[in-house]
Amino acid sequence: MRTFDEDLFRKGLEKRKETLGAEYVEKSFENADDLTRGFQEAMTAWCWGFGWGDEAIEPKTRSMMNLAMLGALGKMHEWEIHCRGALNNGVTKEEIRAIVHVVAIYCGVPQAHECFRVARKVLDEAGL
């Protein structure tokens, strides 16, 4: 029994694949087990269906917001995933640089240094 709206799940699955890539999302579900499957489904419905599915904010802007928030929180694994997604949503190398500058101003230079380290890895992988 699912504890979320099936339409939000389908919408979220589409949005999640558009941003993070179908291969990544499908692998996340393939690797889910009895402990994590419900979370994967609920997170897809809530975060991606309800959150990313709200079209008041375009995906590029939402990606930029995510990078700033995840950078501020120091969630570098998620920052890396969303940095790739931001590129998929049209965020440029220069915009990523500017976002990390904001992280430095409001969250500190050490955190910005971590964001730049991860950004360099992602940008190198993307050939940018």
Write structural notes for this entry.
The chain has helices spanning 6-20, 22-30, 37-51, 59-73, 76-88, 93-107, 109-125. It is mainly α and 128 residues long. The chain folds into two domains: 6-51, no CATH class; 59-125, AhpD-like, CATH 1.20.1290.10. The chain is globular, with a radius of gyration of 15 Å. The chain starts with 5 loop residues before the first helix and ends with a helix.
Give a nutshell description of this structure.
The chain is mostly helical and 128 residues long. The protein has helices at 6-20, 22-30, 37-51, 59-73, 76-88, 93-107, 109-125.
Q: What characteristics describe this protein?
A:
128 residues; mainly alpha; AhpD-like; 2 domains; 7 helices
Low-confidence stretches: none
The number of domains: 2
Instruction: Give a count of the beta strands, DSSP E runs of length 2 or more.
Output: 0
Helix content: over 70%
CATH class of the largest domain: Mainly Alpha
Round the Cα radius of gyration to an integer and report it.
15 Å
Mean pLDDT: 96
So, CATH architecture of the largest domain?
A: Up-down Bundle
| Strand composition percent | under 5%
Identify the quaternary structure here: single chain
CATH third-tier fold name of the largest domain: AhpD-like
Q: Quickly give the structural class.
A: mainly alpha
Number of distinct helices: 7
Note the main sheet: none
Write the layout of secondary structure elements.
Elements: H1 6-20, H2 22-30, H3 37-51, H4 59-73, H5 76-88, H6 93-107, H7 109-125
Helix pairs in contact: 1-2, 1-3, 4-5, 4-6, 5-7, 6-7
